[in-house]
Each structure stands twice: as structure tokens, then as C-alpha cells.
Amino acid sequence: xxxxxxxxxxxxxxxxxxxxxxxxxxxxxxxxxxxxxxxxxxxxxxxxxxxxxxxxxxxxxxxxxxxxxxxxxxxxxxxxxxxxxxxxxxxxxxxxxxxx
Length: 100
Description:
By secondary structure, this protein is an all-alpha fold. The chain is built from 3 helices and no strands. The protein starts with 8 loop residues before the first helix and ends with a helix.
């Protein structure tokens, strides 16, 4: 197994792209499960409905895999990751605030 430090820059960047894609996919799954688990709780308040709407937008966000510029492609992937992670964080904040 080649260590990260021994890889070429191209190999290292490809590995980072792969990790970012895996994180994006895991966050998508977590977002779907969280929304399903807490949809009844979220629908009780306007603030919850706003969080649900943000979660749905985060679900619909996608990466532009056909983007030829690798830096723009990974930047966009990180934007999707950020949006999904923020939605999950906002949900957890809401739940900790209102859960009895």
C-alpha cells in the first residue's frame, strides 16, 4: 500500500476527490434518515418546517461530475457537503432545543 506522502500530486488529488465523494454520499444517506425519523417533530413548528425545507434543498443538491476543472469540481463537492452537514447540524440543534 502506497502512503499518501509517497503518491504523486495527481494521485493525492484523486484520492481526496474520492474521499469527498464518499462523504457527500454518506451525508445524503444521513440526511434522508434524519428527515424521515424527525418529520413529525419538524412539522409541528414553523422553525421545523424551515429546517425541513433546507434539508430537502440539501438533498436535491448535486455535484457537477462533468466539470472539467478538477478544482472547481472538488469545490462544488465541498459546497454540497457543507450544505448537507449544515442541514443535519440545524436539525440536531432544533431537536435538542425542542425535544422533551
